[in-house]
Every structure is written in C-alpha cells, then in structure tokens.
C-alpha cells in the first residue's frame, strides 16, 4: 500500500466533471496531523507542468485551514476527465500529495467491480470445493466470480447455495465452460440461466439433470444427432469462407446464441493456449474475432508464457486498428485458488464499470465495452482496454484497491470458515455485512442523482 494511503484519507476520491466536488483530507494519526494554515494546490496530471505549460494546466491554489475535526477541506470544479493531484503545502514544502479522479458524464453511476469470469473446481479438473474457491477469491479482493467448470453447470449453483443463508457481498455468478461434440473451441458461459452443456446427453457430460438451469423452462435436451443437425442447418446462413471448418464455426455460433438466449455472456477463451500447437487454428481465431459472434474475448488469462496473453492482446489491438471492436475480459482460468500453491491463481482479472454488482448489470457493462483486463503476471501490472478506462483503472489499482481489498480479506476468511462447517462464522458475516457498500458511498460521488 502506498505511504499516502497509510497517512491520509481523502474522500471522495472519484467524482464527475463540471460539478462541484467537496473533498475532505483526513490525517490518519498524530504523525500526519495538520496544524494551522496551508495552501491546497490542484493540478491536472494530463496537462504538463503548470510552470512550463501555464496555458494548458488548470492549476489552482486555495488557502485552507485545519477544521475542528482535524481535517482540511476544499471545494473545486474539475473541468476535464482524468487524475488530479491535491498538494497541501506550507512555505513551499509539501505536507501531503494525494490523488483524485474526475469522470465524464457517461460514467455516472458506474462503479468499479473486479472479478474473474473463468475458473475451475474439483468438480472438473480443479483442486477445491466450489464454495472454498469462491471464498478464496473474495479474500483476494474479488467482487464477483463465476464457477465455470468444464462441461458442468451445477458446481456454480453449488457455490451459490453454500452461502444462501448468510449475508456476504461477493457476487457468485452461475456458469460453465462449454465442450460439445465436434468443436474444441473453449467457450465460457457467464451467467446464462441454463446450461448449454446440458442441452445434450447429460450422462456423458456428468451433469445433474435437475441442476441444468435456474429457470423453470430451459430448452429441451437433444440427442447428439439432433444437436449436430441443428448446427449443420446453420451453416448455409453463415456463408463461411474456404479454409474455415464449417461445423466448428457454426457450432460456436450455435453456442453463443444459446448463451445469449439465456441472458448470459458468451466468452471466446484462450485461442493462443499452447496444447502442442495453439489451441485454435490461426485462421479460425482471426475469423472469429473479425465476425465476433461472441459477446467478449478473453484477452488475458490462463498462462504466464508470452504467447497466450501477448498474442491475444496483439490480436485485440490489431482488430481495433482495423475498426473491429468487441468487448474484452481477463480471467485466471484457475484450477487452484491458493496463490501459495499456484502461481497462476491471481494471474489476471477484469474491472467492470457497472451500475451495480449484479449479473445482468455486469453483463450489460461488458457488452457496452466498459471493462478493462488486468494482467498481474508480474508485480508491475499491465492493462488492456480503451485508454481512458485503462488510465482510470490504473488510478483505482493504486489509490482504491488496497483499501477495498482489506475489507474483502476478512469477509473471504469468514466465508471459507462458514463453508467448511464453522457456524460461528455466520455471526461474523452478519456483523461485516454492508461495509463494502459504505466504502463505495464514501469514495465515489458518482450517484445518479441530478444534483451531485
């Protein structure tokens, strides 16, 4: 955690442009206390040095005094989106140098939620119980997650059910990784109300028939022959070019349409995963991203070697240069949720800027391209996405996430204790309930009201 976050609390940290922001700076301990009168300087990080570029940087100074509660407060209208520094100075010497962020109007009501859209448990080829996996990710600062076991939908419902009787602020989304005959492209179903794996031959997929949906009327179960017939019937309408396997591409389209029909997010996962050759033929990968029948591209996640995340990132930016736009996500594809045992446990993640931490709101925000993929392979993180959102995410990772994750840790610890049979953990979870909501209310002045 940055030293400034230990010594001073500044709130709100995030607000909207062209609206009056009332900012409080609170010392955290006597060693950081303010005494007497100071000058508060406000400068934009994007506009160069105010000394060298006086006509570019909207530099302002305010005389400020310590108030009765020991805090300093300023009111300012930030005209442009971006990061600003607030420096509390006396006689040219800085006492505190803190960051805040102003957002454009389209970000009104959009809060940052960090999550993982692809991970596994011992119900397929992972290591731990679904409920334990969810708790471990909460401990590490995740706001939402999905259990996306290979060929299985019910483990995600198992994780949700494990905590249905206790309050918690982790959003566990139902889902699966889809594997259907004749198609080896890996596709993640994030949040569809029914299992796509569960549309054919439940016994072959090791599915529980009564747990293939959260809706009362899922589509009927098909035989493999019926599934193949439906896919073949799609091929003529798709006009698939030479060099692309028609059945594979049509099967992908069939899957993505079903995910969308169930209100979910269909994710094209890790085409540059090395399984001997790359997992998806280059021509097919290029055609899938060019036509993007998926809802989101897994631009980061799964492995530490360069080819996977590096080439997926290059694919995304090359497509954007060609005018091809599609949403992106970053995930761990984790098979072991313990960072101590698995160096990939916290490999990558996604920041989603959504109106609430709820399945349909997250999906809508990702589809509208309000997401940034985060690469934490090294301590020097890397971000993939639209530059303005990447700049904002960088700010959040340094200025907000450390505070956020402190609250997540204790809730995740209690969730795991509850899941493995400690009844006293329920009381602790009840006590902690609502803390994250209060944290967002404190640091984000971006609510939908007219007079913020």
Mean pLDDT: 94
Poorly predicted ranges: none
Major sheet: size, sense and barrel closure? 6 strands, mixed
Q: State the end-to-end CA separation.
A: 30 Å
Q: Report the total helices.
A: 12
Shape: globular
Helix fraction bin = 25-40%
Number of strands: 20
Question: How many whole angstroms does the radius of gyration measure?
Answer: 24 Å
Which structural class matches the secondary elements? alpha/beta
If strands are numbered along the chain, what order do they take across the biggest sheet?
A: 5-4-7-8-2-20
The share of residues in extended strands comes to 15-25%
Task: Summarize the topology.
Blueprint: H1 3-7, E1 8-11, E2 14-16, E3 20-27, E4 37-44, E5 60-65, E6 72-77, E7 82-90, E8 93-103, E9 111-116, H2 130-139, E10 144-146, H3 154-162, E11 171-173, E12 175-180, E13 183-190, H4 224-238, H5 246-261, E14 265-268, H6 282-291, E15 296-300, H7 306-321, E16 328-330, E17 348-354, H8 359-367, E18 371-375, E19 382-384, H9 387-399, H10 401-419, H11 425-432, H12 435-443, E20 444-445
Parallel strand pairs: 2-8, 2-20, 9-10, 10-11, 14-15, 15-16
Antiparallel strand pairs: 1-3, 3-6, 4-5, 4-7, 7-8, 9-17, 12-13, 13-14, 17-18, 18-19
Helix pairs in contact: 2-3, 2-10, 4-5, 10-11
């Amino acid at each position: 955690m940055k030293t400034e976050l230990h010594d001073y609390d500044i709130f709100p940290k995030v607000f909207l442009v062209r609206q009056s922001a009332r900012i409080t700076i609170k010392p955290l301990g006597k060693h950081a206390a303010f005494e007497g009168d100071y000058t508060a300087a406000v400068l934009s990080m994007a506009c160069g040095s105010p000394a060298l570029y006086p006509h570019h940087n909207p530099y302002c100074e305010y005389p400020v005094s310590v108030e009765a509660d020991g805090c300093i407060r300023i009111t300012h209208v930030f005209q442009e989106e971006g990061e600003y520094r607030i420096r509390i100075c006396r006689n040219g010497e800085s006492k505190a140098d803190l960051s805040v962020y102003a957002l454009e109007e389209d970000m009104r009501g959009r809060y940052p939620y960090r999550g993982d859209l692809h991970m596994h448990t011992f119900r397929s080829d992972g290591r731990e119980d679904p409920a334990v996996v969810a708790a471990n990710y909460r401990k590490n600062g995740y706001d939402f997650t999905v259990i996306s076991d290979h060929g299985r939908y019910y483990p995600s419902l198992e994780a949700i059910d494990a905590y249905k009787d206790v309050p918690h602020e982790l959003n566990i989304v139902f889902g699966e990784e889809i594997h259907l005959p004749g198609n080896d492209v890996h596709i993640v179903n994030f949040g569809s109300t029914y299992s796509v794996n569960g549309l054919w031959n439940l016994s072959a997929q090791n599915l529980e028939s009564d747990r293939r949906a959260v809706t009362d009327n899922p589509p009927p179960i098909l035989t493999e022959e019926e599934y193949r017939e439906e896919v073949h019937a799609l091929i003529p309408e798709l006009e698939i070019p030479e060099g692309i396997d028609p059945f594979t591409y049509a099967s992908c389209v069939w899957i993505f349409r079903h995910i969308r029909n169930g209100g979910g997010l269909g994710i094209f996962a890790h085409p540059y995963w090395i399984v001997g050759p790359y997992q998806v033929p280059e021509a097919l990968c290029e055609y899938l991203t060019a036509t993007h029948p998926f809802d989101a591209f897994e631009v980061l996640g799964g492995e530490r070697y360069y080819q996977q995340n590096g080439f997926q990132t290059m694919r995304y930016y090359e497509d954007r240069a060609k005018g091809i736009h599609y949403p992106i996500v970053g995930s761990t594809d984790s098979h072991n949720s313990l960072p101590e045992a698995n160096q990939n446990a916290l490999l990558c993640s996604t920041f989603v800027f959504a109106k609430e931490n709820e399945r349909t709101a997250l999906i809508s925000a990702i589809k509208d391209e309000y997401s940034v993929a985060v690469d934490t392979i090294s301590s020097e993180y890397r971000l993939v996405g639209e530059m303005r959102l990447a700049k904002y995410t960088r700010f959040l990772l340094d200025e907000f996430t450390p505070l956020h994750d402190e609250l997540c840790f204790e809730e995740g610890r209690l969730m795991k204790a509850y899941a493995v049979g400690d009844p006293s953990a329920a009381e602790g979870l009840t006590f902690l309930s609502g803390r994250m909501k209060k944290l967002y209310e404190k640091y984000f002045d971006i609510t939908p009201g007219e007079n913020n």
